[in-house]
Amino acid sequence: MSLPSAIKFYFDFSSPYAYLLARDLTHTCQRAGRELDWHPFLLGVVFQQSGRKPPLDSSPRGLYLQHEVQRTARRKGLKFQLPKHFPFNSVLALRVYWQVHAISPRRARHLAAALLDATFLDGLDIREPSVLGPLLERFGLDAEALLAHAGAPEVKALAKTKVDEALSAGVAGSPWVVIDGEPFWGNDRLDDIQHWLETGGF
Amino acid sequence: MSLPSAIKFYFDFSSPYAYLLARDLTHTCQRAGRELDWHPFLLGVVFQQSGRKPPLDSSPRGLYLQHEVQRTARRKGLKFQLPKHFPFNSVLALRVYWQVHAISPRRARHLAAALLDATFLDGLDIREPSVLGPLLERFGLDAEALLAHAGAPEVKALAKTKVDEALSAGVAGSPWVVIDGEPFWGNDRLDDIQHWLETGGF
Hints:
2 copies of one chain form a homodimer. Chain A has a 4-stranded mixed β-sheet, sandwiched between helices. The first copy, chain A, has 9 helices and 4 strands; from the N terminus they run βαβαααααααββα. Chain A is of the alpha+beta class. The interface between A and B is medium-sized, with 26 and 26 residues.
C-alpha cells in the first residue's frame, strides 16, 4: 500500500493569509493523516511577472482587506497584527529556511511556523539577523553559520530554484495549497480543503 | 421598536460571484428576518478608478479562478457556466433594473435574480434586447417601453447616481454586502455573514 502524497503548502513568509491558514492547515492534515510539505517562495516574483500589486494598500479595496484580515483573525481566535514594516521582502528568511530544510526538513517546518508567528503574532521584523538569530538558536540551529551563508551563491541558487519550482507549479498567490494536483488559493479555502480531504474531491 | 435596517447587496450583473452568492444570501436574510436591498452597479467603473483588471483572465491566477468558480458552484450544487461572451458590460441591464426599481422594488428584486440566472445558469447574453425583453415580460413589465427608454438622459442619470452611491459607500468589488455598516466582499464571505447575523458581530 502506498502512502498518500504530501499536501503542498506554498507561501511567502510575509503573507498574513499564510499565517492565518498555517495552524488550521496543519491540524487538518494531521487529522487526514497526510504530510504537509511547507514550500516558501517569494510572492514579489509572482507580482512582478503578472503586473499585480500587493493587495493590502491604501486603496478602498486595500483598506477593506486590512479590515477583513483583522476580522478573520478575531473569528479564528488568533492573535494577529499587521506589523509596522509590512509589506516587506522575506528573501533572507527564505534563504535561511531552505538551508535548514537541506539539513532537516522537520526542523525547517518548525522554523517556518515560528517565522510566521514572529511576524504576525509578535510583530517582529524577520528581515533582521538580530531577530532571526535567536529564532534559529531556539531550534538548536547554528544561527551564525546560517546567517553568514545566506548570501552565498549556492544558497541563493537553492532559494531561486525553490521559487522557480513554485512558479512552474502554477502558484499565483499565498497561501497556495495543492492536494493531489488540486490547487486551493487563500486562507478562505480551508473549508473547501477539509471537504476535499473528507470526500476525495467534488 | 424599530425594524433592523436592510442588508445591502451591491453587485454587477456580469459578476459570477454575485450569481453564486445571491440565492444563499437571500435565504440567509430571510432566516435572519432582514430585508435584502439589491443594488446593482458597474464593476468596470471600480476597475477603471483603481487600475485593476477583471480577475478571470488567462493569467495563471485567472485560470485558477476560472477553475475555482466552477468548483465552488459544484460544491454549492448550483448549475453554473461562464458564458461565451464573458466578461461583458452590463450597463443595459443596469439601466433597465433601476427603471423597474423606480416602479416596483419588489419586481426589480425578482428581475435581478432572473438576470443573474439568465447569464450564469442559462448562458444567455443579457446585453441583447431580444434576451431582456422576454425576461421583463415574464414579470409583467412593459419590455418595449423599458428598453426604448434605457438610453434616455434621465435613465442614464439615475443609473449613474446608483453607481456613484456604490462608489461612495466604499464598494470595491462584487458581490459586496453591508450589514449595519460592516462590509463583506465576495461569495466566500457567506459563512462570516451568517456568523455575523447570528452573533451580532465578532
